Amino acid sequence: xxxxxxxxxxxxxxxxxxxxxxxxxxxxxxxxxxxxxxxxxxxxxxxxxxxxxxxxxxxxxxxxxxxxxxxxxxxxxxxxxxxxxxxxxxxxxxxxxxxxxxxxxxxxxxxxxxxxxxxxxxxxxxxxxxxxxxxxxxxxxxxxxxxxxxxxxxxxxxxxxxxxxxxxxxxxxxxxxxxxxxxxxxxxxxxxxxxxxxxxxxx
Length: 203
Fold this sequence. Notes:
- The protein is of the alpha+beta class.
- The chain has helices at 2-48, 64-72, 143-146, 177-198, and strands spanning 54-60, 78-87, 93-102, 110-117, 122-129, 158-160, 169-171.
């Protein structure tokens, strides 16, 4: 009986010490991790909106009105994680940067930022998180693929397996239609969110 009590006390002590150590490590690493995430986010903003002097918060994840707008337009698998205004040095609004997550990727969620100027022109996209198949879906994170979105001013973007032949088309990644579809739907969800913001839907 004494051995059982001793074992239980030892196990309790180990659990308590482990919990305290984990809490200590979390406390030490929390701030550096947050700073690194903020830095990565800001770099992505500047990549898709280099003309902006600063960025102002507009909406965060979980915005109910934006969720409804996406659902109404058929983007149930997409989420607007964050949306910020791109602002010039004189304080003028230049457009928006939208952070989108789509759950339609072949290897899981894909998250990226996209910049949209006030006239509706897409500046480009920057991948934040992607876990697609190496040599196939991972080509979505190459300049060759991402650059296709830059400069487009269309209602929605479509992909072609036989070669883009119109302003609203991009070339699909060979052998990775699912990834191409996920990114395209994500971009279109971002454009949908941009149009809602331009109407002042979340002011």
